[in-house]
Amino acid sequence: MELTDLDDSPARLLKLRLEMPIVRRVMALGSWVMLAMITQFFVNAADNFMVGRLDNTELATASQAALGLGLPLFWAIGGFFSAVVFGTQAMTARRYAEGEPLRAGQVLWNSLLVAIFAGTFGASLGYVLTPHAVDFLATASPEQAALGSSYTQMRMIGVPGMVLTFSYKAFFDGIAKTHVHLYAAVVMNLINIGLNYVMIYGSPALGVPMMGLDGAGLASALSTYLGLFIMMAVSFQPKYLRTYKFYQVAHTSWTVARRIIRLMIPSGSATVMIMTGFLLFMRFVGEIDAAVGGNTYSAATKAIMDTAALCFMPVVAFGTATATAVSQSLGAKKPNLAARYGWESVRLGVLAMLFAGAMFAMFPEEIIRIWAPNDPAVAAAGATSLRMIAFGLPMMVVGLILSQALYGAGANTFVMIVEGALHFGVLVPVSWLLGPKLGFGIEGVWAAATLYVNLLGIIMAAKFLGKSWRRIKL
Predict the structure, then answer these.
(1) Measured distance CA(235)–CA(241) in Å, rounded
(2) Residue 292 to residue 237: CA distance in whole angstroms
(3) In this model, does residue 233 exceed pLDDT 70?
(4) Which residue would you say has higher pLDDT here, 434 or 309?
(5) Do residues 106 and 171 make contact, with C-beta atoms less than 8 angstroms apart?
(6) How far apart are CA 56 and CA 374, in angstroms?
(7) Secondary structure (H, E, C), 124-163
(8) How many Å apart are CA 132 and CA 13, to the nearest integer?
(9) What is the DSSP string of 7-71?
């Protein structure tokens, strides 16, 4: 079942019935990506889940507050360089659809060369910048600053492995072998949970001291390299080596590398803008905490973010599948089919989010308590905000899926500009105004986030409804 074996008839937007041939292809491709991303999510969520169960309740809450800063900072830097994924996937999918496997293999080789330099530089930069960035952002308490800085530095050690893994992932996603990354993610997640348990709580039998949040950071970094090893091992299978011939010095091409970098920079910049926006968002929550004393609101916000991530990770996964389908369709000279893939994925995602939104609205405290069982104040502090998030889920689907679809088409600069404008023109100033400035508390901050996701959905839908993205050459 090929992604491009359907006709090129125009999309019909005003209809309720799903176009099942397209849905089946997106589901077949996206399900593997979704499972991989959920397992990848648990690499990060396991940190929050386990440190929230430390015997010392104050330390547990402060550690969760520190994670609210540490993870966005890690993704701001690691995510910028991991944006090699967008150019690699889009170019691989185009070459694959054009029937040029050797050129697809050339894309991976040059992507890996870019990733080696980018990952090494990113790790060094992140390690040095982390203490200064955390000192500026950690407004809730000194404990949040100290814990967040050391944890994030531990995570930065894993940046090279993450960037290289994303290069392999992008290639296999581009040729519609999305199951490959799933295998790596499952093994990586299982190992990470085991390492987390030993390093966070300690193991006298193994001679490992209790490291708390630092142990979580080190465990995640180590498991990242295990995932890279698995992806690399798969690439050496004869069926891939014979067809794509990746590892040839003759494949080295500044032209190909430059195209990957040209697509990486706006995509990575968009990631930096997103994470910077959320870091400032967390800073404003920390100011609310500082005014009353403690880390409760910061811990509640981290729990809400992890809960929302369980929704948007599958959405991004189907967006990744959609990006492959869009790129392959454009490579096969079927722009209308590319548009139908985008809109059908949106319909499918919105239907799925109706259930999630109902759960958020009905059981907010119970959901937050999963992340923070030892401190009842955390669940009470975040309940209203989680209900608020439910009203932003449908447009979140539209924004995230169509952003990925536009990445697949090569419209990376447009996505970067929109994300930058919305984060620094809406999310940051409105969350500051409604939160610490006017005194609406954590609910005011999350109202700004809800406004942001709704505007993102509207703008991305308007862009995808147009046709300029169909004419981009890669």
Answers:
(1) 7
(2) 58
(3) yes
(4) 434
(5) no
(6) 9
(7) HHHHHHHHHHHHHHCCCCHHHHHHHHHHHHHHHCCHHHHH
(8) 49
(9) --PPP--S--S--HHHHHHHHHHHHHHHHHHHHHHHHHHHHHHHHTT-SSHHHHHHHHHHHHHHH
β-strand partners of 208 = 203
For residue 467, is pLDDT > 90? no
Helix/strand/coil percentages in the chain, nearest 5: 85, 0, 15
Query: What 3-state DSSP class applies to 208?
Result: strand
For residue 157, give the nearest of 116, 127, 115 by alpha carbon: 127
- Per-residue pLDDT tens for 250-260? 888 999 999 99
Copy the structure tokens of residue 24: 């089946």
Percent of the chain at pLDDT > 70 equals 98
Q: What is the pLDDT of residues 125-154, one digit of tens each?
A: 999 999 888 888 777 677 888 888 888 999
Q: Give the C-alpha separation, 431 to 297, whole Å.
A: 14
Long-range contacts at 311-316 (CB < 8 A, ≥ 24 apart) = 311/353, 311/356, 311/393, 311/396, 312/396, 312/400, 313/34, 313/37, 313/38, 313/40, 313/41, 314/34, 314/37, 314/38, 314/352, 315/349, 315/353, 315/396, 315/397, 315/400, 315/401, 316/37, 316/400, 316/404
Which residue has 């199951």 as its token pair? 179
SS3 293: coil
Assigned token pair, 118: 């980018």
CB distance 187 to 228 below 8 Å: no
Question: Could you give the CA distance from residue 371 to residue 204 in angstroms, rounded to a whole number?
Answer: 27
Looking at the DSSP assignment, which residues form a beta bridge with residue 203?
208
CA distance 149 to 69: 9
Opening angle at CA 418, ends 413 and 420, nearest 5: 95
Euclidean distance between the first and the last CA atom of the chain, given in angstroms as a whole number: 25
